[in-house]
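Key idea: predict the complex, not the pieces.
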Amino acid sequence: MSIRPLYDRVVVKRIEAQRTTASGIVIPDTASEKPEQGEVIATGNGRRLQDGTQVPLEVKIGDQVLFGKYAGQTVKLNGEELLVLREEDILGVVESSDARLKKVA
Amino acid sequence: MSIRPLYDRVVVKRIEAQRTTASGIVIPDTASEKPEQGEVIATGNGRRLQDGTQVPLEVKIGDQVLFGKYAGQTVKLNGEELLVLREEDILGVVESSDARLKKVA
Amino acid sequence: MSIRPLYDRVVVKRIEAQRTTASGIVIPDTASEKPEQGEVIATGNGRRLQDGTQVPLEVKIGDQVLFGKYAGQTVKLNGEELLVLREEDILGVVESSDARLKKVA
Amino acid sequence: MSIRPLYDRVVVKRIEAQRTTASGIVIPDTASEKPEQGEVIATGNGRRLQDGTQVPLEVKIGDQVLFGKYAGQTVKLNGEELLVLREEDILGVVESSDARLKKVA
Amino acid sequence: MSIRPLYDRVVVKRIEAQRTTASGIVIPDTASEKPEQGEVIATGNGRRLQDGTQVPLEVKIGDQVLFGKYAGQTVKLNGEELLVLREEDILGVVESSDARLKKVA
Amino acid sequence: MSIRPLYDRVVVKRIEAQRTTASGIVIPDTASEKPEQGEVIATGNGRRLQDGTQVPLEVKIGDQVLFGKYAGQTVKLNGEELLVLREEDILGVVESSDARLKKVA
Amino acid sequence: MSIRPLYDRVVVKRIEAQRTTASGIVIPDTASEKPEQGEVIATGNGRRLQDGTQVPLEVKIGDQVLFGKYAGQTVKLNGEELLVLREEDILGVVESSDARLKKVA
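Result:
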């Protein structure tokens, strides 16, 4: 089973950064309000313009994205927690140096 | 009797997942605030654009959709509880592997 | 006397379902917050678009419509309570099987 | 002296229905929150569209209109209380059977 | 010195009606919440439309206008209190019978 | 160093009127909530329209402008307090008689 | 790793001005609510217009910008705190005299 989001929504799988202090203490989720990171696993067909056409999204499947901690709605599918966001809740796409190298090559 | 929703509204029949813990305790509805799943049983003719035309909806009858627990309004018809939602309250369409196979075939 | 609603408004006459439990106890209005049903008895000429034209409404006189309990404003005319709603407050049109048969015939 | 309302505003003179119970007790204004009725005595030149043109209003001078009790702003002119409303605050136009006859004739 | 208002703003000089009861008691300002009257002494060049053009205002210098008691912002210039309003805060223009006669002549 | 404001923003240098009563008592800022006056020292390139073009502002560098006491955001640059406003927060431009003479000449 | 912001967002690296009083006391961040300064290190492709096209931003990489203290969302990348802002939260671009000289030359 998979989710096909509508219009300008995307489905994101969170990447839970290991929240551990230097001394090894694990910080519970509610104690750190940083933006979250995740991987886009599905995108909608794009926002509907006022003339009825749809514009494709800027993010695409596989993108590593940053978003606010309280953005979107959590959905559980096949026992896995996913997040359904609107594209405008996405702050940016994280590009690794590798990704850049690929573009150069 | 049936409901014909207007414009960008859809009528959804909830699929009540069995809310039971591993040890068999049934969780009452108010204790679980996850998004809900349902089947679209009727759709409106589409949102009205500013030039007066209507654009058809992205969801169609038979789609399994996800939506927020408090989205829409409950309607009772023929003793059956239905939900009338705006299409923008729908988070996404659940596609089973079977559905995908059908598309391939 | 009758009311001619403006633009995208409609006048609806409520159909008060008999609110009685199986054991015969009558439930007062404030105890049941279900959507209401009514019959459209007058419609406006349609919503005004941004270019000045008006688009006719999707509902028409005689339609059995569903609406939220607190939608619209109650108006008393000739001793009869009527409801003036905007069309977007209407959840859907109830179609009986008879209505469908008529369409087929 | 008279008031010329701007754009989509209209000036309405309330018709104060005699608020008296069967036993002759006069009900003060604050105790009855029904919509009010009035006669349009002046109208603006119409709402300004986004392209700068103005569309004439649907109501015209002499119309008996219904409006919410708290709509508009009261203005005192020549010792007379008038109400300045936006057209969208008007629920509908009351048409007497006489008015209809005139149209037929 | 004078104020040139921008876009859809107008500068109005209040006409303070003598607030005195029949028995000669002067009513302080805060005790009477009626709309106010004033004379337009300057107008902006008009509201900017979405295509960049400006549409001239409906009110003009010399108009006697009505407005809500709390509309606009008071400005003190040359020791004189003036009011800067948006045109949409103006309820209407008061036309004296004289003004009408002038139009006829 | 100077600030170049974006789009419809302007940079204003306040003109602090001497707030002194007749008897010589200096009134502290927080005790007088009149609109403020200032001189425009930089303007943005204009508001972006929906078709992507920019319309130039109505105010220009050197204009003496009036604005609400709490409008805009204070910025400190080179030890000098400046105010960054949106153009729509400007109530009007103060024109001295001298300015008018210059226009005539 | 770097962040590629979407649409009208920009990534800014704060320039923390040394907040020290004349007598050498360091003022903690929460005690000074002045706008902040930073350098733009990445920009989105521009705001999407209603016809689907994108207009490039007015700010560009390298610009020294001013913004409100509570604007945007903080993101931590490679141990470095960055700020993701919408362009409309930027008050203006700080131009040093050097920058001007370069333009002249």
